[in-house]
Amino acid sequence: MTGQVQGKVALVTGGASGIGEAVSELLAREGASVAVTDVDDLRGPEVVARIRKAGGEASFWHHDVTSEERWIEVVADVMNRYGRLDVLVSNAGIGISVPSITEMSLADWRRQTAINLDGVFLSVKHCLPAMRKTGGGSVIMMSSLAGLRGAAGLSGYCATKGGVRLFAKAIAMECATFGDGIRVNSVHPGIIDTPIWGKIPTEAGGSGQNAPIDPEERAKMATPLGRAGEAAEIAQGVLYLASDASRYVTGTELVIDGGMNAGGVARRA
Ligand SMILES: NC(=O)c1ccc[n+]([C@@H]2O[C@H](COP(=O)([O-])OP(=O)(O)OC[C@H]3O[C@@H](n4cnc5c(N)ncnc54)[C@H](O)[C@@H]3O)[C@@H](O)[C@H]2O)c1
Predict the structure, then answer these.
(1) How far is the CA of 269 from the centre of ligand 1 (A)?
(2) What is the tens place of the pLDDT at every residue in 221-244?
(3) Is ligand 1 within 6 A of the CB of residue 92?
(4) Second-level CATH architecture of 9-256
(5) Is 102 in contact with 146 (CB distance < 8 Å)?
């Protein structure tokens, strides 16, 4: 039986952990060769080793998405190794929370924007030529529910994810205008149980202003389906957008959030 992305080559940024890790594993299981890229040199190679052990194909590249120089090297390497690029999953991101925007340092604002927004810009700038050479493909940008709705304490993060949402639509229009066969969509996870929640207090310059956030606790109250999502549940949405099953889908947003964006529910006891 052939997989849903059999023979395709995918590049996943932030592929060492959480959603990126689940996406890398699922795409490989469904037949893609996966370039796992991340700044985490410990977990990244572990993800690749697991994929290979399961019979899939993957390689790891150390890759800071804010470095244009590195983007040029990584894309050239991937093209040398695999000869094509069909799928880009621009997933790497961080979250910085502050009690009030008045307490956010410009350095933190810029660091978060550099990874969450500049990194996505650079991904498209350097992957589109390779995908056009391949003859088409699918770009999937990881936005957030925080790219659709405001969240107190996360205004800088919301600004980056809202930017990603509309950036995806604009690039979708560019690609459609070029007729290059490349589709571009954004994915909007709600509260997903990944390591990112444990990092939020320390990402703010290690200031320790914020208590650790328990995603399950938060989701129980805030999510109509009453629980946090799993990274694997986001990966299923990415697989759909990466595969030819979504060949008529571009410029749209796939919300995977347990119903949060639709409204609130009064839960029965
Ligand atoms: N977990 C959630 O609830 C949730 C909800 C909505 C959106 N998201 C988004 O999903 C994406 C993945 O988040 P996650 O929850 O899997 O988090 P995670 O922390 O588990 O994984 C993020 C990965 O990005 C990597 N990374 C960080 N900075 C990088 C850089 N400069 N260059 C390359 N890689 C870098 C990290 O090393 C890590 O492996 C992010 O864009 C995040 O904003 C997550």
Answers:
(1) 35
(2) 899 999 999 999 999 999 999 999
(3) yes
(4) 3-Layer(aba) Sandwich (3.40)
(5) no
The least confident of 26-40, 189-203, 219-233 is 189-203
Q: Which of 94, 111, 140, 234 to mutate to test the pocket of ligand 1 (most atoms within 8 A of CB)?
A: 94
157 catalytic, yes or no?
yes
What amino acid is encoded at 140 in this protein? I
Identify the band that residue 205 occupies on the pLDDT scale cut at 50, 70 and 90: low
Q: Is there an atom of ligand 1 within 6 Å of 189 CB?
A: yes
CB of 237 closer than 6 angstroms to any ligand 1 atom: no
pLDDT tens-digit readout, 78-98: 999 999 999 999 999 999 999
Question: Is 191 close to ligand 1, i.e. is its CB under 6 Å away?
Answer: yes
Candidate list 82, 157, 240, 248, residue with the active-site label: 157
- Any atom of ligand 1 within 6 Å of the Cβ of 16: yes
Mean pLDDT of 23-47: 98
- In tens, the pLDDT along 117-138 reads 999 999 999 999 999 999 999 9
CA distance 170 to 258: 27
